[in-house]
Write a structure and sequence with these properties.
With 290 residues, the protein is an alpha/beta fold. The chain is 44% helix and 15% strand. It is globular and about 45 Å long.
């Protein structure tokens, strides 16, 4: 698994990921009080179409619609029992859209609850929760894993440990991206700096170290300038389309596709090998970036 992805990295090719899933779902009339991950079961044609739209605009990797599909988050919608099914189907839908033309990354986000010592969830329970989701994504056929938008470094490390245990048991290594969410001060929301998380993620054998979400392209470019000197691993950059602004009662991301594309070029010039988009980005942003 993941041979093609590793080959792209070794060849030092620029790899273009897709953009936001939630933003596009909202544009299709799916409101935020619904469970977006459940759409893998209730509206698979829409999810498949969004993947296809990103591919048509130039995405070389699409991420599964599973960012929040862990048991802890799904139980808020009384869907914990469907955790494996939602993740497996999410991987299958992305693979169907990819049709062997592009790669599929299994999206894994934070649990949405605090892990000890800051919360009530034990580290063992957190690791088991991640393992359930990751197992289903691998069963669904993902080419790599994308751990993204983590603010708690310990939680991200637990997710990576869970993946390592699973792949070790099946005898197949699955490449992965480890991406932290950093604010415009250069720290995660839990106060961790790149000087801390880059070497720790490299020690866990992350194939790619990334930064995503929280901020727009300008502060992320400034952050990339410091991150690039802290690790020898390929770098991933996936900013939001700026910060959301309230316009007529709706939150709007104001960075245009061309504006994002200009920064994407600068990301690559500074050493980023993977470029994509997070909140507020659409297939049009990916077209411009591509």
């Amino acid at each position: 698994m993941g041979t093609r992805f590793l080959e792209l990295l070794e060849q030092q090719q620029v790899v273009i990921f897709d953009g936001a899933m939630g933003t596009v779902l909202f544009d299709h009339g799916v409101y935020i009080n619904q469970c977006y991950d459940q759409l893998n079961l209730t509206n698979p044609s829409l999810i498949r179409q969004i993947h296809s739209d990103y591919i048509a605009k130039g995405a070389m990797v699409v991420e599964t619609n599973t960012f929040g599909a862990n048991r802890k988050k799904l139980q808020q919608f009384n869907l914990a029992a469907k955790t494996a099914e939602i993740n497996r189907r999410g991987a299958e839908l992305a693979k169907e859209a990819a049709a062997e033309r592009v790669l599929v990354a299994g999206s894994v986000g934070p649990l949405g609850v605090r892990v000890e010592p800051w919360g009530k969830i034990t580290q063992d329970e957190a690791r088991e929760t991640f393992a359930e989701q990751i197992t289903a994504l691998i069963e669904g056929g993902v080419d790599l894993l994308a751990f993204e938008t983590f603010a708690d470094l310990t939680e991200l490390e637990l997710a990576i440990h869970a993946a390592s245990e699973i792949t070790g048991s099946i005898g197949t290594r699955v490449p992965f991206i480890a991406s932290m969410s950093v604010n415009d001060s250069g720290r995660t929301h839990s106060g961790v700096t790149p000087e801390t998380f880059c070497p720790r993620l490299e020690a866990l054998d992350a194939d790619v170290i990334g930064i995503n979400c929280s901020v727009g392209p300008k502060p992320m470019l400034e952050l990339l300038e410091s991150v690039r000197g802290l690790t020898t691993r390929p770098l991933s950059v996936m900013p939001n389309a700026g910060l959301p602004t309230m316009v007529e009662g709706r939150m709007i991301y104001l960075c245009s596709p061309d504006y994002m594309a200009g920064y994407a070029r600068r990301f690559v010039q500074l050493g980023a090998q993977i470029v994509g988009g997070c909140c507020g980005t659409t297939p049009d942003h990916i077209r411009a970036i591509s």
